[in-house]
């Protein structure tokens, strides 16, 4: 009798189900859950997400923002309402023809992000996505990584890393739109990231 050997090549769920057959729990990939969303119906100088401590069942948090500034293109933020000089950043930015790098330490807020302002094309918004890693930990400093991009003022795209040199768990996040704040229509969405 001929023995037919089946190949597992191309079976996308093979690892998941073979793990179950071996008596292990199935592998479940991490997931994003929408926790809160704020959409501005008029301009605002800042937006705050408070009570982040209630989301400690998530491994990380992610902020997704579709934003437009007033008179300033600078976007910054503080954690836990802390404005002491314990923030640092690294940024690399490109515009299609050149690349620049920037770093700072001992700042009173985190930043390095840019957004279109009211002086650019009407209706132009930028996007920022930020991950607040291990936000509920009390044994390590908080790292926030992010990227941004917009098609106004040089078609900029950037990669940013921020450090909050405190071991306090993160309980609040406050944005700062700089001069002129944020324009109407800006959307700020907070997601919880489950561990894999």
Would you mind describing this structure in some detail?
With 196 residues, this protein is mainly β. The protein has a single domain (30-193), classed as Jelly Rolls (Sandwich), CATH 2.60.120. The protein has 1 helix and 12 strands. It has an 8-stranded antiparallel sheet, with no helix packed on it. Strands 2-11-4-7 form a 4-stranded antiparallel sheet, with no helix packed on it. β8 and β9 (142-149) form a beta hairpin. It is globular and about 45 Å long. Mean pLDDT is 86; it is low at 4-8 and 14-20.
How do the helices and strands line up, and which of them pair or pack?
Elements: H1 14-21, E1 32-39, E2 48-49, E3 60-67, E4 74-79, E5 87-94, E6 99-107, E7 110-114, E8 126-133, E9 142-149, E10 157-164, E11 173-176, E12 187-193
Antiparallel strand pairs: 1-12, 2-11, 3-8, 3-12, 4-7, 4-11, 5-6, 5-10, 8-9, 9-10
- When the domains are counted, the total is 1
Low-confidence stretches: 4-8, 14-20
Assigned CATH architecture: Sandwich
Task: Supply Rg.
Answer: 21 Å
| Overall morphology | globular
DSSP strand (E) fraction?
A: 35-45%
What is the name of the CATH topology?
Answer: Jelly Rolls
The end-to-end span amounts to 44 Å
Q: How many H/I helices?
A: 1
Number of strands: 12
Report mean pLDDT, rounded to a whole number. Answer: 86
Brief digest:
With 196 residues, the chain is mainly beta. 4% of the residues lie in helices and 41% in strands.
């Amino acid at each position: 009798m001929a023995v037919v050997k089946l190949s597992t090549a191309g079976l996308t769920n093979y690892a998941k189900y073979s793990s179950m057959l071996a008596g292990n729990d199935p592998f479940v990939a991490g997931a994003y859950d929408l926790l809160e969303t704020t959409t501005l119906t008029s301009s605002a100088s800042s937006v705050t997400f408070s009570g982040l401590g209630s989301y400690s069942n998530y491994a990380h948090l992610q902020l997704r923002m579709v934003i437009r500034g007033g008179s300033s293109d600078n976007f910054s933020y503080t954690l836990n309402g802390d404005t002491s000089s314990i923030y640092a950043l690294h940024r690399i930015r490109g515009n299609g023809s050149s690349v620049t790098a920037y770093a700072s330490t001992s700042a009173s807020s985190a930043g390095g992000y840019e957004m279109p302002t009211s002086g650019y094309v009407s209706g132009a918004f930028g996007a920022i996505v930020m991950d607040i890693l291990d936000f509920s930990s009390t044994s390590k400093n908080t790292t926030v990584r992010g990227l941004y991009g917009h098609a106004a003022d040089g078609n900029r795209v950037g990669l940013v890393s921020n450090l909050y040199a405190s071991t306090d768990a993160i309980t609040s996040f406050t944005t700062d739109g700089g001069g002129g704040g944020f324009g109407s229509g800006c959307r700020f969405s907070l997601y919880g990231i489950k561990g894999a």
